[in-house]
Write a structure and sequence with these properties.
CATH topology: Tetracycline Repressor, domain 2
CATH class: Mainly Alpha
CATH superfamily: Tetracycline Repressor, domain 2
Length: 194
């Protein structure tokens, strides 16, 4: 009897592989082994490794978008506390992995977006969705007088998440959460109305 394969399970194994090994260091054989699928089944789901990579990115982006929205639209916390809690949760997740793997979107942006237009477009769209959710939270905090109005919410959101991505790069190089902790401390000081 033939075994049915779940595409989400295959994509989830791709998320793990790409985060740990990178896109270029992961071969189709690695994907087949991790997903527990034969080569023929792989090509029934995906046209190529690049197609697989794009679908992995979309799966990760969908999961991450929902996570961000859940954290930043949680009305049980103030907007500033939501932002702090959100970034603390990302820091804790990275610490639990020894500060080695970071964010798949950030990793793929550095590794292949400069040379692949389809990947660059998918990554840009994801980043814009995340920044829009962050801006929504910041705007709410500005309206409530809790977050500084020195800059418009979309500019603060872009600055905040771009800075976090930069801190992730340093984190991996140092294998320490210190850059992330520094990012959070400075960012909360910038956002707070004293």
């Amino acid at each position: 009897m033939r075994r049915k394969h779940n595409i989400d399970d295959i994509l989830d194994s791709g998320i793990d592989l790409f985060r740990r090994q990178g896109f270029n260091n992961t071969g189709v054989e690695d994907i087949l082994r991790a997903g527990g699928i034969p080569k023929g089944s792989f090509y029934n789901f995906f046209k190529s490794k690049e197609d697989f990579g794009l679908q992995v990115m979309q799966r990760y982006a969908d999961i991450y978008d929902a996570y961000v929205a859940g954290k930043l639209r949680d009305k049980s916390r103030t907007p500033l506390n939501r932002l702090k809690h959100f970034y603390e949760s990302l820091i804790n997740g990275n610490e639990s992995e020894g500060c080695r793997y970071g964010c798949l979107i950030n990793n793929l942006t550095q590794e292949i977006a400069g040379n692949n237009d389809a990947v660059a477009l998918a990554l840009r769209q994801h980043f814009e969705r995340i920044v829009a959710i962050i801006a929504e939270c910041i705007a709410e905090g500005q309206k409530q007088g809790e977050i500084s109005r020195a800059y418009p919410a979309p500019e603060l959101a872009d600055y905040l998440h771009t800075s976090f991505y930069g801190a992730l790069v340093r984190m991996k190089g140092l294998r320490s959460s210190q850059p992330l902790q520094h990012f959070l401390q400075v960012s909360m000081n910038i956002l707070s109305v004293s």
